[in-house]
Amino acid sequence: MKKRIVCLTLALLMSATQVVSVSASREDELREEQAITSQQLDATYSRMDELAYAKSQLENEISELDSNLVSVMVSIDTLKGDIDNKEVDIIKTKQDLAKAQKARDKQYESMKLRIQALYEQGGDAAWFQMMLNSEDLSELLTRAENTQQMYEQDRKNLDKYVNTINEVNNLKTQYESDKAELEEMKASYEQQSYDLQCQIDQKKSESADYENEIAYAQQQATEYANLLAEQTAEIQRLEAERIAAEEEARRQAEEEAARQAAEEEAAAKAAEQEQDSESEEEENVEYDEDGNEIENTDDADDESEADDGVEYDENGDSVDNAGASDDVEYDEYGNVIDSDNTVSPDDYESEQSSDSDSSSSSGSGAGSSVVDFATQFVGNPYVWGGTSLTGGADCSGFTQSVYANFGVSLPRTSYEQQNAGTEVSYADAQPGDLICYGGHVAIYMGNGRIVHASNSVDGIKISDNAAYRTIVSVRRLV
After folding, report:
1. Structural domain count of the chain
2. How many CB atoms are closer than 10 A to CB 217?
3. Which of the listed residues 213, 245, 277 is the one where a domain comes to its end?
4. What is the distance between the alpha carbons of residues 383 and 410, in angstroms, rounded to a whole number?
5. Are 464 and 56 in contact, with CB atoms under 8 Å apart?
6. What domain range includes position 147?
7. Which of 133, 176, 354, 473 falls between 20 and 30 A from 427, CA-CA?
8. pLDDT tens figures, 378-396
């Protein structure tokens, strides 16, 4: 009989499995789509990190170029001041040059007249004739002294004339050189300013392109995150429907099995009673010498009287009141103890509840241990695809390696980790819980803080706001 019940239960369960197979198939398809969406979201966030880093580098270059441009502009302003001052010097030099040229011309004319007068008086022997015409030695000496003085004066005038000519030439050369140098420096600085401005404009254009790409990537990430949330909700709905259908099928199978067992037991008891009745009738029947049945009315009356003192149960079996209380045992709930099933459902549920409370209590301490272990790796690098807590890990590689230290085996990707453990609300989150975002995971530290492998710029770090992004799920693992 038990074998038939088991077979019937299995048959009903197989029917229930066929009923929910369509839902399970759709659930598998959604999980595959969710895995693809999660990979796309991870790739998008990685691209956003790369773009943000490139944009940061570009902004540093722009800042440096701006600083250089400011220096060049300051140099140009300084040079303009120098040019203005030099222009004043040049004007003065021009004036000095004009004076020197006048002095040169005047000296030239004076010397020319002096030489002309000398030669007109005596030609090449003018100085000699002047001394010969002296009346006495004293006049001769006087004329000779005067001649020497005139010669020295003429010599000084000649030297002065030569110096004036040199000064004029030097002033002119200096003027032209200073002016050319200043003009060249000014042109150079203006070219540098132009080149720097062109570079800044180009860098700013590239920065704007990065901003557009980051904005587009952010839009894609938001769409992927929304799609992940929708897929997760749909999977949870299908999973709930599938579990409910399986439970309903199991309940119906158990009810049907119980009904069949009750019917078969009742039929067996009825057959047993009928067989016992036939046996008793055969024992009480007497036959005569010819083989004919003898009707004994006295025995029948005795049996009737005996029956008056006998009690029967609902199936027609006699009940022995004297031995009932001695042979039947009861449990603490007042139920008759069945040797085939000595543990009641209430006992099992009570035991399960006690085990659950114990597990929850120990999980809190283990969660703090997870946090203490994870925070010692803060500052280590973020490496895409990495799982090393010291050499570099990404978000899911970091959480996988941390929980592995406590005997918790997690899948590799952030999407797969969203289905690990038991889901709890963020309001009930405890230290050591896994916080799941769209394409990202972190370890909850308590007080709204998380520790996670953030990005290639920040590495493994502690963030003070666990809700800085949309939280998809919170998973209790320890």
Report:
1. 2
2. 20
3. 245
4. 19
5. no
6. 2-245
7. 354
8. 999 999 999 999 999 999 9
